[in-house]
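Just curious: can you write a single protein's sequence together with how it folds?
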Amino acid sequence: MRITHVITRLIIGGAQENTLSSVLGLRQRPGFDVQLISGPSTGPEGSLESLDPQLTIVPALVRPVAPYRDALALRQLTQIFRNSRPAIGISATFASAGAATCGRGR
């Protein structure tokens, strides 16, 4: 089963650590193909990016609301979802990630 997790930033923090733990745990189980997508993870909190060598970075997926970048992120996420065709899409944070997971269609 293909599963895609989308999170705005993979910084050191509770939701991010939980998402990363879920992704890495599911990858250990047979029959699961799990992808993690994040925006850039810069900031004083530190980054968890190095813990997932399969991580996909979408540069336009950023935390502050920015209509142009949000539209670009939505387009990029939609393309990723069309190519990978996950059975389940999980959005951990932010509306632009949620829009891609809810509006991906089949």
